[in-house]
Specification:
It is a single chain. The chain is 29% helix and 17% strand. The protein is of the alpha/beta class. Keywords: Endonuclease, Hydrolase, Metal-binding, Nuclease, tRNA processing, Zinc. Homodimer.
Length: 926
């Protein structure tokens, strides 16, 4: 760490990516001593995604000494933290498909395991051959590739990424694990799109467009893939997997009487016989075999996990010969299946064909773990839902989401999500809907069957509020007083504060690590003015004049740092522009689930459809690992609808991840480097755009060629002319984080961005270099001017988001006159040294940044998980500030009352102890 006495010191090596935390570890796989005589074994539903339907559920296969996870969608880590499931015990993770729905939680999980203890931990990841694309993508932001031990199986891929599926191969189960504890095999399931196949129940009644929407896209043709030859070409992500888990047979009961008659004495020989080994009699000259003293053996339990994602896959499922030995009605049926867990969606499982196929397993217990309406009644994250319900009671204006699904949400669910019990086809008699933490016991054999004892109990919002009123009786009056803040509009007007005209900037302040925030930003007169402002309230900005509730809303989807916790998800901010669309600022894991908790299942789909742009601050996993899931869902929702690729703006390292991931799953996006949206680069772009427009009128045949030519020539010329601008250091100007870059590569995308912003009512989106890690940025959003009903021009609002950063002059300068500053406040004021070491800000520093810039309102976010519910803060600094919470929704029209709510929020958490939940999280995982 760089030695620094000033409050804005920073860890220079960390900012440059050279700190020792980035040194790779060699993480060894865990070696566990197996216990062949397991006393406990069960499969359990880890309900990730079941209430919000954003991911595929996970399944835990539990043994005394081993743990196996099937699928790791977003939110798995948060779910396991909530229910104290120890992920560090996991030995293998199996993926039924390789896509964001089943593997979105892997990056965060791997990073958490790698950070445990001094050595870190690692697991095996198994999946179809497409797994390599996922691993390649993750390597762009997971610095240690050694922590990812993978085994892929199935057809190989060609240079274009297409899988070459030889129908003569992979017809038999692929054995992945076969030891004294369990045998796990994989049966590949591919979509069947061959000519003449009966893909639908009644194809004559369905249009060809509907067929395209309901089924996977057709496989590539011969002409598109000349190297196909006799094989069928599959795209990455097309292959699904059926996993078969077979336990060893259960030996018959030992008969001591028979052993005694054969001359055996109690002791080690009894144990050997029970293990299946023959022994010499103690008193007779004979060999005693296990069959002499053991009763008849019982076949080992068998569990199938079936993921049949589309009706096209169903045709293949019905014809797989390798499953014949598991069917009760087959002449080859020699293996009795005890439990079948169906990960398939209800659109598949409710068909006549699928129901008939299920009946072939006889009396097997079927657990329907696909997306069904019943599972939405109980929130998966009960701790978070409880907090949301309390906040909603106190201040429904800022916390409109009640934390629990209400009837109108459930009534709006489409047929894709309907419970099988309400479907057109009867379920097999031994079929149950999956519920969170539902178990099926495999051993001891006497307990074989379903176990509902761990299923969370129903918790109605009324119970939460009753508990709140009993715990904090004064909350009733507090809720009334909060309501009065909205009813008394006169209280929202404030006096005008002092001018900021005397602010003085020094040159290249990021090179100076020894100055404090006020010293860097203000001269003597400016510093006096800033201090005076701390004791007064600034005027309501003119941009809020006559503003409507349909202008803009800030929805904080995640306000925690590093990794998800019970109460706070990782970073994500939804900018709701209502009829003009929306934007996402950062997109941590679980962003889609949070959108669904805020807007409902259907409302979140609408929000994703309406996205105009996604902006990512830096490459750390807690800020972008939810991105692929959002992009993949948008692509699915808009399939068959005319639309444009979504703009994604982020650090250059992010493009490597997205490029690698797109070989796996279609993301339908355009990428723009944050450096191309800095103020300097945008000025160059605007100059180039004006020059090109003056040379060629829009619509002319050679307009595009002229733009391309100008995109190179003019930009280069402008950069060269500005390199040695007056007052700048020639040796460092080019290296400055905000220096212009060659925007010629993204010239057309920049033009598209300009158009998209205009359609969204925005004047500008500007990325601001900040001090955190290499290529870390904050962002400024400026709304366009508007004209009120009497013809008066009203300036647009200005929103600034810091991303992760130490206090820095670039962000303060960019925040001048901001209507809202959303600033990270990872640590409490007493932890300045830790904040400097990690290049984060304290609460006081974040507020000082907003004060120095003259921001009207400040919202603090990105709190360390050591503050599980509410962070430590000094109210004397919070005159224009509010603490952010997950699901907090701040409408621009409500900004005047924002800081006035803070004391009531503190009352809500008055009995809460500050606990380092990061330790609690790791403790529950280890």
């Amino acid at each position: 760490m760089e030695e620094n006495a000033g409050s804005v010191g920073f860890n220079k090596r960390r900012a440059e990516g050279k700190d020792k935390s980035d040194k790779p570890k060699i993480l060894q796989l865990k070696v566990r001593k197996l216990n062949p005589v397991n006393t406990i074994c069960y499969v359990q539903i880890l309900g990730t995604g079941l209430d919000t339907q954003d991911t595929s559920p996970s399944v835990l296969l539990f043994f005394d000494k081993q743990r196996f996870i099937f699928n790791a969608g977003e939110g798995l880590q948060r779910f396991c933290t909530e229910h104290k499931i120890k992920l560090s015990k996991i030995d293998h993770i199996f993926l039924s498909r390789v896509c964001s729905e089943t593997a979105g939680g892997l990056p965060g999980l791997l990073l958490t395991l790698a950070s445990m203890g001094d050595e870190g931990m690692s697991v095996n990841i198994c999946g179809p051959s497409d797994l390599k694309y996922l691993v390649d993508a993750m390597r762009s932001f997971i610095p240690n590739a050694a922590m990812v031990h993978t085994r892929s199986f199935g057809p190989a891929s060609n240079a274009d990424g297409a899988s070459l599926y030889d129908q003569g191969k992979f017809t038999e189960p692929i054995v992945l694990i076969d030891d004294e504890v369990v045998k796990i095999s994989a049966i590949l399931l591919r979509p069947s799109c061959s000519e003449g196949s009966q893909l639908m129940n009644n194809p004559s009644s369905v249009s060809s467009q509907e067929k395209r929407d309901r089924f996977a896209e057709p496989l590539a043709s011969h002409s598109q893939n000349p190297n196909r030859k006799d094989g069928v070409v599959l795209k990455p992500g097309d292959i699904s997997v059926i996993y078969v888990c077979e336990l060893p047979e259960i030996k018959g009961k030992f008969d001591p009487g028979k052993a005694k008659a054969l001359g055996l004495k109690p002791g080690p020989n009894y144990r050997e016989l029970q293990l299946g080994n023959s022994v010499m009699s103690d008193s007779k000259n004979i060999m005693v075999h296990p069959s002499d003293v053991l009763g008849p053996s019982v076949p080992g339990p068998i569990v199938l996990l079936v993921d049949c994602p589309t009706l096209s896959h169903l045709q293949e499922l019905l014809s797989i010969q390798s499953l014949s030995s598991y069917y009760a009605d087959s002449v080859d049926g020699v293996k009795s299946v005890n439990c079948v867990i169906h990960l398939s969606p209800s659109s598949v499982t409710t068909t006549v064909e699928y129901q008939t196929w299920m009946e072939r397993f006889g009396r097997a217990q079927h657990v329907m773990a696909g997306h069904e309406i019943k599972n939405m009644e109980v929130p998966i994250l009960k701790s978070s839902a409880r907090i949301a319900a309390r906040l909603n009671y106190l201040c429904p204006y800022f916390f409109p989401a009640p934390g629990f699904w209400v009837h109108q949400h459930l009534n709006n669910i489409g047929p894709e999500s309907m419970d099988l019990s309400e479907g057109s086809f009867p379920k097999p008699s031994e079929s149950s809907a999956a519920e969170n933490l539902l178990k099926f016991h495999l051993r001891p054999y006497a307990q074989l069957g379903l176990d509902r004892s761990a299923i969370p109990s129903l918790l109605a919002p009324a119970e939460v509020i009753k508990e709140l009123l009993s715990e904090i009786p004064e909350i009733v009056d507090a809720a009334e007083q909060v309501s009065h803040l909205w009813n008394s509009s006169g209280d929202t007007r404030e006096v005008i504060g002092p001018s900021q005209e005397n602010i003085i900037m020094i040159e290249e302040p990021w090179m100076n690590g020894n100055a404090s925030v006020p010293d860097i930003i203000l001269g003597k007169q400016g510093l006096d003015a800033a201090r005076e402002e701390l004791n007064s309230e600034s005027a309501v900005p003119s941009c809020l004049e006559n503003i409507t509730r349909e202008d803009m809303e800030i929805v904080l989807l995640g306000t925690g740092s590093s990794q998800p916790s019970k109460y706070r998800n990782v970073s994500s901010i939804f900018i709701n522009l209502f009829s003009k669309g929306s934007l996402l600022l950062d997109c941590g894991e679980g962003t889609l689930g949070q959108l669904k908790r805020r807007f409902g299942v259907m409302g979140a789909d609408d929000a994703v459809r309406g996205l105009r742009c996604i902006w990512i601050s830096h490459i750390h996993a807690d800020h972008h690992t939810g991105l692929a899931r959002i992009l993949a869902l948008r692509c699915k929702l808009l399939r068959g609808v005319p639309h444009e690729p979504l703009l994604v703006i982020g650090p250059k390292q992010l493009k490597r991840f997205l490029d690698a991931y797109q070989r796996l799953e279609d993301l339908d996006m355009q990428f723009l480097d944050c450096r191309q949206t800095t103020e300097a680069s945008l000025e160059v772009f605007e100059g180039t755009l004006e020059s090109s427009e003056s040379r060629s009128s829009p619509g002319s045949p050679d307009c595009e060629d002229v733009n391309k030519r100008d995109g190179v020539g003019e930009i280069t010329q402008n950069i060269e002319m500005s390199l040695f601008a007056k007052g700048s250091r020639m040796e460092s100007y080019w290296k400055r984080p905000g220096s212009p870059v060659d925007t010629s590569v993204g010239f057309q995308i920049l033009k598209n961005l300009k158009r998209v912003l205009g359609e969204a009512g925005l004047e500008a989106l500007i990325s601001v270099p900040v001090v955190h890690c290499p290529q870390a940025f904050g962002v400024v959003l400026k709304a366009a001017e508007r004209v009120n009903s009497v013809g008066k021009t009203i300036p647009g609002w200005k929103l600034v988001y810091s991303g992760d950063t130490r206090p820095c002059s670039q962000l303060i300068d960019a925040s001048r006159g901001a209507t809202v500053l959303i600033h990270e406040a990872t640590f409490e004021d007493s932890l300045v040294e830790e904040a400097i070491a990690r290049n984060h800000s304290t609460t006081k520093e974040a507020v000082e940044v907003g004060d120095s810039a003259g921001a009207y309102r400040i919202i603090l976010t990105h709190f360390s998980q050591r503050y599980p519910k509410i962070p430590v803060f000094d109210e004397t600094h919070m005159h224009k500030t509010c603490i952010g919470f997950d699901m907090m929704s701040v409408n621009m029209a409500d900004l005047p009352v924002l800081p006035k709510v803070l004391p009531y929020l503190k009352l809500l958490f008055k009995n809460e102890m500050i606990v380092d939940e990061s330790d609690d999280v790791l403790g529950s995982l280890i």
